[in-house]
Design brief:
Length: 210
């Protein structure tokens, strides 16, 4: 639990992210022409000093990822992460079984960028819309990294001095007979956290008067 959030606020973020991830799953279902099941989000708020150990625990192997910067009522960096050795399998599920490994490899980065853009934007846009806020996202970037170095990739350059906290959302993808553990990570600039918390409090206050 983050010291920045009350129990009600923490529960609200989980609920809103669950809605966003659900919408992302529907979008992914259309891409793979198959039902996609996602686990309930496991949400943790961590300071950078403790986040690296958490990343290594949940994601021990090499990772493939897509990240996007975002700004608005909260500012930071979002990332979709999954095991590097399963990335081609995920791309194959999206592009179709009849494509060769060579064809899949050529389209891997473009496909993963599109996937990350859809999933991350669904989550961020849903969070912003439900809270009646505005958010903008940059173009997605593809990267590969080992868990010990993941934090450096996700932390904003100007925030390397522990001025961010990590909102880590762990989800599990299930595509028919394929199982792929994926992760959504959000690095939120602490300078925008006050606006983020204020939006949560305003939403909760409106619920009490309805």
């Amino acid at each position: 639990m983050s010291p920045l959030l009350s129990a009600d606020e923490h529960e609200l973020v989980v609920e809103l992210m669950n809605i966003g991830i659900g919408r992302a799953a529907n979008a992914l279902s259309q891409m793979v022409q198959d039902e996609v099941l996602l686990s309930v989000p496991q949400l943790q708020f961590l300071h950078p000093t403790e986040a690296s150990g958490c990343f290594c625990h949940y994601m021990p192997g090499a990772l493939a990822g897509v990240m996007q910067d975002f700004s608005g009522f909260m500012t930071g960096r979002a990332a979709l992460l999954f095991p590097e050795e399963r990335s081609l399998e995920l791309v194959r599920a999206i592009l179709g079984e009849d494509m060769s490994i060579g064809e899949i490899s050529e389209l891997e980065q473009e496909t993963l960028a599109e996937l990350g853009n859809i999933l991350l934007n669904n989550c961020l846009a849903t969070l912003a819309n439900l809270l009646n806020q505005q958010i903008q996202t940059d173009l997605p970037q593809i990267f590969n990294v080992d868990p010990p170095h993941l934090l450096n990739r996700l932390t904003l350059t100007e925030d390397q001095d522990n001025t961010s906290f990590i909102m880590l959302v762990q989800i599990k993808f299930s595509l028919r007979e394929r199982d792929l553990e994926g992760y959504l990570a959000f690095v939120i600039d602490v300078r925008s956290a006050d606006m983020f918390v204020a939006a949560l409090q305003e939403y909760l206050a409106e619920l009490t008067v309805r």
